[in-house]
Design a protein that fits this description.
The chain folds into two domains: 274 residues, no CATH class; 88 residues, Translation initiation factor 3 (IF-3), C-terminal domain (Translation Initiation Factor IF3), CATH 3.30.110. Helix 1 runs parallel beside helix 2. It contains ten helices and 18 strands. It is of the alpha+beta class and 451 residues long.
């Protein structure tokens, strides 16, 4: 299946002619280098505006700034389709290549591979597929048509051991499995601790950081790891190879207004509104949270996500405290039960009802006892009379095969349900006090009549 990537520049620093040159270079990289290694086929095209991008394309937007502490990031829109945001810089073609490759290799943001952990103290883990991150620094990139593009690792990156003659990244910068180069990182999920871990390399120093469990609200594992690594990417020192630059001259090409249908405009407007909402949330140091994903369109709110999670968990804990688990206790009788056994079982029934549990009284008929079912009915009716106000009858005695049973419920459950109706029932009772006061008045009137 052919995947389609559309590049759009929303910054004045990039002429459309430069964008087309970069798109052609990335297209060649994808078709010649990435496709055969990762077994995929894709097209990369440049468009003048967001509305010009046809439906079905994965958008890559380049702007002066993006609402993340990163040169680039790829996310998923309301329909689950991936898109990327690129911050303009001198290496914008490298970042565009980086995000385009990672979108094509892992569109969902949740693709993982089971492999040995980069941390020797751990066993088998699930490593997030981020094809460009271990060698993302510009000094490990290469040029296509004179345009700087990103290096990427191959599926052999996850091999258990290194072997001679095996290619672990396209440029050969990565020389063994799970190697992280200067300025790069790798992320994984440990099934034992259920925590996310990351390995960072800066210079000759490597460090492994435990990022804790994956919090609720993150749509993908990649979105969580990006939220951590974005603030570290700013410190990456990018040293592009000499001569690796965009060679196309700015021709000042004027782009004519293109005719687009309503569906493309609606899709562009939806994506633009999502990007604007992300920017507003970041400006206020808040988060854009999808609160109703099933709605059409999905509903999002700008909020403090950490506070939202705390309040949600607090409400869940309070709800659990107020829950009452009703247990159905079963008491079995026989049609020839004597008075002592009957009283013992009846006391059990009363105790269960006082504890707030339901009671199922059962009589099992054996053999010829089926001809004396009325004895069983009398025993259950006697039990109902003895329980009296201690409970209510949910189901009268009923016969099911060779079993007769009834169900009693605690009286407390009924009184709690009728609490809201109590004021209405109390109104006619207010008329009783005058009638009760008439008795002493008559008593007082008798001496007067005798006098």
């Amino acid at each position: 299946m052919l995947n389609q990537v559309g590049l759009v520049s929303q910054t004045k620093h990039i002429e459309f002619s430069d964008l087309t040159v970069a798109a052609a270079a990335i297209q060649k990289q994808v078709s010649r280098d990435l496709g055969p290694i990762w077994n995929m086929d894709a097209s990369v095209d440049a468009f003048a505006t967001l509305e010009d991008v046809p439906l079905g394309y994965w958008h890559v937007l380049i702007d002066d700034t993006i609402p993340y502490n990163a040169q680039g990031i790829h996310l998923n829109d309301d329909n689950g389709q991936p898109f990327a945001l690129i911050a303009y810089s001198d290496e914008w073609s490298l970042t565009t290549s980086h995000e385009s490759i990672e979108m094509l290799v892992d569109p969902s943001g949740n693709r993982t591979v089971a492999a040995n952990s980069p941390d020797p103290s751990q066993g088998r883990v699930l490593i997030l597929v981020e094809a460009c991150d271990p060698s993302e620094a510009a000094k490990f990139g290469y040029t296509v048509n004179g345009v700087l593009v990103s290096d990427f690792y191959t599926p052999n990156f996850f091999d258990p051991v290194d072997a001679p003659g095996v290619r672990y990244s396209f440029t050969g910068a990565i020389t063994k499995p799970l190697e992280v180069l200067d300025g790069g990182y790798v992320s994984w999920w440990d099934p034992l601790t259920k925590h996310v871990f990351q390995k960072f390399v800066s210079g000759a120093k490597a460090s492994v950081e435990d990022q804790g469990p994956l919090p609720k609200g993150f749509a993908t594992l990649r979105s969580f790891t990006d939220s951590i690594t974005n603030r570290l990417r700013q410190n990456l020192k990018k040293t592009p190879p000499r001569g690796a630059m965009l060679t196309a001259a700015a021709t000042g090409l004027k782009v004519k207004a293109s005719k687009v249908d309503k569906s493309q405009k609606a899709n562009a407007a939806s994506l633009q509104s999502q990007i604007d909402a992300i920017k507003k949330a970041k400006e206020k140091n808040l988060d854009l949270v999808e609160v109703s994903p099933s709605a059409v369109p999905p509903v999002c709110r700008i909020m403090d996500f950490g506070k939202y999670i705390y309040q949600t968990e607090k409400r869940e804990r309070e709800a659990k405290k107020n829950q009452k688990v009703i247990v159905v206790k079963e008491v079995k009788f026989r049609i020839n039960v004597d008075d002592h056994d009957y009283d013992t079982k009846k006391n059990h029934v009363l105790r269960f009802l006082e504890e707030g549990d339901k009671v199922k009284a059962t009589i099992f008929f054996r053999g010829r006892e089926m001809t004396r079912q009325m004895l069983g009915v009398k025993i259950l009716e006697r039990l109902i009379a003895d329980v009296g106000d201690h409970g209510i009858v949910e189901f009268r005695p009923r016969q099911e095969g060779n079993t007769l049973h009834l169900i009693l419920a605690p009286k407390k459950a009924v009184t709690q349900e009728k609490k809201p109706k109590a004021p209405k029932a109390a109104q006619p009772q207010q008329a009783k006090p005058p009638q009760q006061q008439s008795a002493p008045q008559q008593a007082a009137a008798n001496p007067a009549s005798q006098g």
